[in-house]
Amino acid sequence: MSQPIHVLDDYYLAITLLVTIAYQLFFFAIAFSLKFDKLTDFAGGTNFVVLAVLTLALSSTGTDLPNARQLVVSLFLTVWGLRLSGFLLFRILKTGKDDRFDDKRDKFFRFLGFWVFQMLWVWICSLPVTVLNSPAVQAFPQPAFGTGRDVAGVVLYALGLVMETVSDAQRYRFRARNDRSAVCDGGFFYVSRHPNYFGEIIVQFGESPSPHQLNTS
Asked: What sections of the protein cross the membrane (predicted)?
């Protein structure tokens, strides 16, 4: 079995951090220069896709293809990132601007602070997939995909993605029909104050392989 490509460190931590910083600073420069809100959240969601594709590609060398677990979790992160960025882009195109940045848009360091937080959010939440695809893990034979933990992860991911997607749609429709002071309490919001965030948390747990699924020795 050929080895995954080694870049800077055995866990792809440095390369993914550098790519994330560069990616976010590129969009920050556009957003700050043009006072443009429409790419901010899109840059966050698509950054997950970039890291998933990058680390998966680096782990594929010669004729060796990524194993099933790598493909599944990388696909999961890609689908989630595309879904999130697509929805947020659609929403901002409809609303025109993001009120979160009204007190930051013209202030370089305050606006940059949000983007630094977004860098950390993307990089940290991508770590399970980054590490799974890294040489430190793939240098050793891995358990076959299909264990009970794998099945549980797939189920959690599916449940979380459905909850996040549906609750995003429910909240968007509610905001379109009601004043901003109104509280959305229908659908998933009837049982949870932030079901979209809860769904995202479940997604992250679902796509994160447990230490018992990884062989590093």
From this structure: 12-32, 39-59, 71-90, 111-131, 151-167
Residue 215 carries which side chain, given as an amino acid letter?
Answer: N
Which H, E and C letters describe 56-86, residue by residue? HHHHCCCCCCCCHHHHHHHHHHHHHHHHHHH
Residue 126's SS3 state is coil
**Reduced 3-state DSSP string for 144-187:** CCCCHHHHHHHHHHHHHHHHHHHHHHHHHHHHHHCCCCCCCCCH
- Give the helix/strand (H/E) hosting 121: helix 108-125
* Encoded amino acid at 56, one letter: L
Helix (H, G, I), strand (E, B) or coil at 104: coil
Torsion of CA 114, 89, 21, 74, to 10 degrees: 130
pLDDT tens, residue by residue, 98-112: 778 777 888 889 989
